[in-house]
Amino acid sequence: MKKNLHLVAVGVLSLALVHPAIAQKKPATKATVVKAATKPVASAVLPVDPDVKIGKLPNGLVYYIRKNAEPKNRAELYLGNKIGSLMENEDQLGLAHFTEHMAFNGTTDFPKNEIINYLQKAGVRFGADLNAYTGFNQTVYQLPIPTDSAAVFKTGFKILANWAGKVSMDGKEIDNERGVIIEEDRQRGKNAQQRMSKQLLPFLLGDSRYAKRIPIGDVDLLQKFTHDKIRNFYKDWYRPNLQTVIAVGDFDVNEVEKLIIENFSGLKNPANEKARTYYNIPDNAQPLVKIATDAEQPYNVAQVIYKQKQGPLKTEADYKLQLMQNMVNSMLGSRINEIMQKGNAPFLFAQSAYGPYQGGMIWDLNALQTVAVAKTGAELEKALTAALAENERMAKFGFTAGEFETVKKKIEASNEKQFKEKDKTKSSAYVQQYLNNFLIGSAIPSEEFTYALTKKLLQTVTLADVNAAAKAMVTKNNQIIVVQAPEKEKANLPSEAALIATLKNAGNGVTPYVDNAVNKPLIAQMPKAGTIVNQTKNEKVGVTMLTLSNGVKVVLKPTDFKNDQVIFTSFGKGGSSLASNDDFVSADNANLIAQSGVGDFNPTQLSKYLAGKSVGAGAYIADLYQGFSGSSSPKDLETAFQLIYAYATNPRKDADIFNKNVSDMKVITANKSSNPSSVYADTVQAVMANYNKRGMPTTLADLDKISLDKAFAFYKDRFADNGGQTFVFVGNFDVEKIKPLITTYLASLPSLNKNENFVDNGINPPKGKVSKTVKKGLEDKATVQLIFHDDYTFNADNNVMLDALKASLDIKITERLREKESGVYSPRVSLSLEKYPTAHYYFTISFNCAKANVEKLVNAALEEVSAFRQNGVTTEDLQKFKSEELRQEELSLRDNGYWLNYLSNRLKYGDNIEQVLDNSKRINGVTVEATKAAALKYLSGDNYIRLVLEPEK
User: Fold this and answer.
1) With CB atoms counted within 10 Å of each terminal CB, which end of the chain scores lower, N or C?
2) Taking the complete model, does pTM exceed 0.70, yes or no?
């Protein structure tokens, strides 16, 4: 159980300001565009990709159809509705989102849960595949579906048509769903973020209609509204002249067009249509300031927002501006990252980037959004000043020629990579483009056109153009300042007047940026090449295995799944398990060495050095293994190999970066006790490690023991002997052409032939029955984990049986806790398997609920487990498991990432790499009778851990 703290978490937390779209999936955001201050010269309109067929039915429904063979035998079907919560009346608050739920609870042709039931049998997973989301302006349903079954594929369009105009809105189903919606609000909220959002949203949305139409709605109204209110909403707004059907996939375009005409032509618009009104939020001439505090907020966060009106990307001028804005984001981000690496950095975390305002929830706004996180409330003003100074430095002096050349190289490399992969583009990527075209009118040019336009613009855009675009981001009006902080810091926070002064004075005294690029080779001296001493080939799996003169093993699997991708990983036994107890904390943070750059290059300098290349690599030290991982385009493979060699032989000892990270960890550790989820997570970690010191959460006392010298020495020790490393490469390469790189850079890695192994330090979960309740939190929200675990024999047959039990139990828990009890939103059954140091399995049933319902729902879950032990898996649920697994297998076998993970795990565990060839046979071989015995064995409850988080009151 690793317990490293990663600062990236701070960034995620700090930027999660407000995002009220209610979705099981993040909705697509618009293209990033800002209008110039002066009226632009008319620009050529971006042409529509000729490979997409766009049509319109007489009833107004728009459709987009494109044939695309990635993934094979699959299609993405979307129903887009150009309506969301903004269309609700005062007595319908939350019913746009509620309507989305009801689409899965019975339609004319699919009563009750039959849509989900039918699709699961066809191999479509609910949540992971089948999904929907509701925002302010749109409601979108997504249905990835197989195309090699004509009946299933045709039924997909029937399902979309049922969502579009045939949802039953049965009264009993509506009432049953109320509890689920309430629990969705509880699961997503009842925390500091939601409480502060309620303070901030009316402010950020300018007391507009947006502020009064948050998609989750009014909880009291959701419990009491009469059925006619939601039926009226559906009747008024789910109409074909506000809808689109998008179909992209491996199919015949003309046949799909016929299916759309057949299924959707009969939909009618209401006789007296309600006008579809579009809303905006007001401007502000003077800066607006809002300070929000909460007892459970762990960090001091300040954000400055420079709002700007925008329009969708439609013309070449728009495209040029977007390209320049992307350049600005990259260069400004690089400058701020450089500051964060310094030991005296004025902020814990900072970021400044231009993009859709508040994640795109307002269609007509973009913003430069700058965030600073300080260690304390008293330091927040200083942190914000430093972050804003980078905006002002950019606006006053622009970027340097060196920075400009670097970012052009990065964009050129990205453009080349994207174009090389154009015939491997996933259908889902096209769907999002067409959805944005329907919703906001953004252009949908072809890959060939955008590739050529990008190449042309990279030759013609000047540094002066980019600097002008950068300056335009820092507006003097529409400025907003937001502070989120712990309640205990309230007295130490800057006042509203001080914050405004900070904004106005941030540019005082700033000087031009000085570029710090390093003009040296990555490797000072070429290594002395080794040799390949053995080679074997497994034709069945398509793998070549090499043994090198220094003992390193290399496994090569060339594929054609991607045109411009090679991914790799390696492992050698040992990891941090070999550290002594006294040095463990330092060893456990030796990854900070790899994160400090390599050789003469700090991370910022390394990024500049690699500009123009599609490559990245690094080293890692985990509990039981250490190794390397990365990815590359085929043309940049030598650089990837050089990075591996450099990380192994020339690590960077950077006291500033190391000490800054440790200092940041101390702030995170000191503040996490205010957050109920963090306190609960620490308790879970401690219990699951049975309070073994090496498995416990990191404390401030631990952090005080971390030594750069010890961490660096441990890192060097772990990579002093690479003879036990096994590398796996998967992707588009030629085995013979990659061999010289292998002999030059891998066969030359230092090797001491120690034949090391990892150590079992006894970090194991407790045996028997354990119950632990944590009382932390202000609101009525409980979190429950029920864990069934034990040692077992790790092999392919047992693992597929455990997978079958997990998938089937997940269905039963959802049916009971969500559908029958209406007591949870998204209960989950997860399965974790490990082979080393001791083979062990973990079944975890987890959910959030009201405190009053904990015992009832725990008992209900245990009843389902008990029934499982007695009866095993039902025939229907087993069919769903097999269909979903076999469908996922089809996709996985054409995915580089799957093969990298599969091969590295088989080699780690000493398994037969041909195991994959019998996967389908093993899945089909699972029987109902066999699951009964397996359920009795694996869900006996002899080793059972109950972990509950409840509010304090």
Assistant:
1) C
2) yes
